[in-house]
């Protein structure tokens, strides 16, 4: 990987440093806010023998290295979540067997996991669970070996549950996107609050679908990143074409104390399916972001995103550049 000498972020980012962050410098010819890793995809079905696909998965920094929860579809068609480990965030060893909950031995079924390291040092997993329809499951681990089930945070049908990494005014915050039992023809982002991870309420509306790449539905992506200017949220947006859905992703900046207030929201997308592994696969034209690693001192960010519901890619950017980009390309005048 090509690494330039260190650089200092231009805005304060409230996350721990990740010196081993997977990184490749922006190609000289590239003027886009994000750029893809030249070695993409970093995870394919071949990472787990007998898997059908591995996509939309979440990586986090873990004990100086990396760990994660991966959507691994079996060749039977069943959809499971498996744990995985990596020294460099690029080469992953994914457990061949799915996660089984410590409490009752049931498998962790579902898709689109996100992993959030909370202030208590635990890693909380939210994912689209099966609870008489798609719901937002919550579980936690502190070692990626033993997983504890908390339950379903929200009634069906709901997807794209994403936690904030710290309590705000004494409450945990969860973004979600109410949906239907199928491929959901519309959808907006909401927020719910809880004091204990069990009872969720005090719901707030965050933002609606808009136009173009985000005209059909939107959903939160990785765990938001706290900066001095607001929470940086990467989210996916869907455009409906005569040939199916196109999943792109963009960004918004949310108020630090009241994150249902949107300060800036990008009008153009940040990344849309373009590379062959994004436009071709099990579901063509899907770029679905689910994790973001940030090295606060340098402001470098690495996004993990599912590609064509088939494999996982990563792309890079700088947090301060994305915040500046948002201010220049915002739909909303604060
Ligand atoms: C959504 C989710 C994602 C998937 C996307 C595109 O509804 O199911 O897992 O990547 O559709 O198929």
Q: Keywords for this structure?
A:
334 residues; mainly beta; Tachylectin-2, Chain A; 5-stranded antiparallel sheet; 4% helix; binds beta-D-mannopyranose
How would you describe the overall organization of this protein?
By secondary structure, the chain is mainly beta. It has one domain: Tachylectin-2, Chain A (5 Propeller), CATH 2.115.10.20. The chain is 4% helix and 44% strand. A hairpin with a 6-residue loop joins strand 4 (79-86) and strand 5 (93-94). The protein binds beta-D-mannopyranose. Beta-D-mannopyranose binds next to strand 6. Beta-D-mannopyranose is lined by residues 56, 111-112, 247, 283, 286, 288, 306, 309.
Question: Please, how many domains?
Answer: 1
Q: What is the fold-level CATH name, i.e. the topology? A: Tachylectin-2, Chain A
Q: What is the distance, rounded to the nearest whole angstrom, between the alpha carbons of the first and last residues?
A: 39 Å
Shape: globular
Number of strands: 21
Portion of residues in beta strands equals 35-45%
CATH superfamily annotation:
Glycosyl hydrolase domain, family 43
* Content-based structural category: mainly beta
Order of helices and strands: EEEEEEEEEEEEEEEEEEHEEEH
Proper CATH architecture: 5 Propeller
Low-confidence stretches: none
Radius of gyration: 18 Å
Write the layout of secondary structure elements.
Blueprint: E1 35-36, E2 51-62, E3 65-74, E4 79-86, E5 93-94, E6 111-117, E7 123-130, E8 134-141, E9 148-152, E10 158-163, E11 172-178, E12 189-194, E13 201-207, E14 217-220, E15 225-227, E16 230-241, E17 244-254, E18 262-265, H1 276-279, E19 287-295, E20 300-307, E21 311-318, H2 319-328
Antiparallel strand pairs: 1-21, 2-3, 3-4, 4-5, 6-7, 7-8, 8-9, 10-11, 11-12, 12-13, 14-16, 15-16, 16-17, 17-18, 19-20, 20-21
The structure holds beta-D-mannopyranose.
